[in-house]
Amino acid sequence: MNIHFSPEDEAFRREAAQWLTDNLGGRFAALRFRGGPGDEHRFIDERKAWECHLASGGWTCIGWAPEHGGRGASIAQQVIFAEEYARAGGPGRIGHIGEGLAGPTIAAFGSPAQKARYLPGIVSGKELWCQGYSEPGAGSDLAAVKTRATQDADGHWRISGQKVWTSLAHIANWCFVLARTDPTSHGHHGLGFFLVPMAQDSVTVRPIRQITGSSEFNEVFFDDARASDLLGAPGDGWKIALALLGFERGVSTLGQQMLFRTELDEIIRIARDNGAARQADIRSRIAEAWMGLTVMRANALRMLSEDAGADEQRAALVYKLHWASWHRNLGKLAMDVLGEAAELCPGEENAPYALTRLQSLFLFSRADTIYGGSNQIQRNLIAERGLGMPKEARGR
Fold first, then answer.
1. pTM
2. Catalytic residue ranges
3. pLDDT of 363 strictly over 60
């Protein structure tokens, strides 16, 4: 791997760490280590304010090109900020879908007018986005989407259909929607990539209630909803959708791993305090978790390296499968370390329950191997794209 931290990078690290230390206090102190996976429904208004505060300090979209409102930070500096943000306990980024997915995609495929219209709102932290990909009959299989897009008499695109598991749709200003522009098309042909405002009567958002009693994702119904823009041309949707998924496997993975590290540290602390660490099986599983996280970091740095070649690009296909399975096992380990305490919910008697951090980790990590590409789909991608094996037989 070739991720080097120069003296300038280390100066950047000190700047970022100091800013986070100075600003994650006062009115934002309660946000530290909050709002992550399983906790995304908490502190919504406060995290919106934090997003704008980050922007005022110049800490949103730091890897974007300066002409798009970013700092043009190097990969090394983006890695540093992701790590320092997680180390400082920065709250879950409520604008991450815009910054990490919508924005880079618009920058790559949008017209100058589209870039000027949409990118500033993401950089400022004032406009939030959600992702309209999955459907009731098309979860990990994006090529099976049925949501349709038609043009009215004035040439404007209208969207009709249903999306599901849409994180943050209830607070988002915009949704990027994969829809079928050619009603006779099948598979990855005839798809369009649309930018749709959420504040219209023809868009209905319904929360999906979870076992915890909370809701952080939703189902969204488009009933002849107006699309503000089509990114690219009709039929380009599949190409753009795949490019967006590539942005999803970016530098944020290092910040994710820092959050995993704090979860593992908490498990180790509790195991020492309650005596679980004296059990040989628990010690072995903690060691296995530590080694898995160490390997995960090394592989992520290799994927992000400037001299990453074809082998590293193929290895990137393994990343989602690796971290999702690892994190699910960490949730199991957390419950076994807690012992009887894992069965008790403190606080309110009725949902939404006041779960502890590790209880939320366990419940949410059960979904890690499903969302963002199920383990089954990831194994197919590894076999077909990484190893060149024959494609899975598909029914018609």
1. 0.85
2. 248
3. yes
